[in-house]
Amino acid sequence: MAASIDSLLAEISDIEDPIEELKHLKTAILSIPISALRDSVTGDRFDVIFSLLSTTEREQIELCVDILERLLVALSPVSLAQDFREALQGGLTHHAEGVKILALTQIGRIVAHPEAVTEILNNDDILQEVIHCIGVDHIAVAKQAISSLSKLSHSKAGLDKLFRSSLLKDMKDMMEISDIVRYRVYELVVDIASVSDISLGYCASSSFISQLLAELMGEDVLIRATAIEMVTGLAQSQHGRQHLAQQGVMDKISNMIKGANTDPFSSLYLPGLVKFFGTLAITDSPQQVCEMYPAFQNKVFEMALDPDPVMTGVALDTLGLLGSTVEGKQVLQKTGEQFKAVLVRMSQLANLGATEMRVRSLDAIAQLLNLEVEHQSEDLLALTESWFLLLANKPMDMITNICTQPFPELHCSGLRVFTAIAPQPWGQRLMIGTPSFMEFIVDRSTGKTKEAKDAKFALVGALVSTSTAATILGSRNYLQLRTYLREGAYYVAAVAAVSTDGAE
Fold this sequence. Notes:
mainly alpha
């Protein structure tokens, strides 16, 4: 096998127009399993393919990239670092986006390997070129460069190289290119800082974090809107949240929410501020966040009633997240009439809004109503039932009507609402009490898409998995559901063909 690949490579090197041979080689290599390639590929002749990248012929470049992607993955990261370091470095400055991404991907493999990484740590030129790739126009190249540098930072040696060598200046120089590139560097910094408290310390001591926070509190509302996204990423980790709390960032963002009503440009950054606290509430404690920062909760309710679809959409997503936890449900219930008004608004949007808003409303409602079996106390069951009954005079009919409309995304979102209430005894009683509803559940003719079939299957599974289903739904319905589940999501009943003499 190795001999046949080597012979093909040798043939290509002797041909003036190698495209047809490259196509042949690509087909041959793609037919070989990766495991077999690992046993047979030595990499001795890969320089032939690398040399063919020196062209402006687009098809030739694309074929070479496809072939190298397949061949290089068969080599160990150590072999890559030792034998193809120069070739990969050349790829970083190539004019074609695909070649840059190929080189960055393979460098990512090298820096993630504890032995191979030393070959790169001793080569500032390669790492400088990777950093420079953050500033190129092609976002896919920049993303891959960020990914590779983030992997490098997973070791102390990598952190030292990035933050305690001349490479630090290279990163800071990149930030001067444009706002877009500066925020790509921040994206890298947040990725690195999120790994551990130690990596965050490197980022903080290099002034990246303080500079980002300064931009969040600055006067430029567009910069502020982008900065809050980065800061929210930092809040995903516990050590990141602790650092932000020590810097007083939560209080400052809360004050920004309070002052939003007097800022005519607040709509540009307010959604990001709300998402930040929504992240905090889910990762820490909904009750604690809502009690410590009441401006957040009040603003979410206000945005849910706002005619601006951007504001409403963010509020719906945030309410769904908050209400997905038991603690969040209890926090919302404590607000009394405030939340009831919001729930009615969500129901109106689910019925009459634009399709995207209807889907977001239904998905938020499903999260609010969902209650795992282990949390089904008498109080919480009464809470979710009361919320469902607030949706309409006949909420079962309302959601069923949405499920039967000719919009696949609405169909699936409606089914997710039913799936949320399916494990709850009151939900099962409503289902069996609604005429034709059980027939609707097991009717495979509704919902033709894979997503719809999966959503219906999830609903059936949620019903069958509960201990109360057989009693409440009745043995006949329960057995039908079990049969549906056993047959699978994509079951199609066989139709017998009957031939009649004389029929055309």
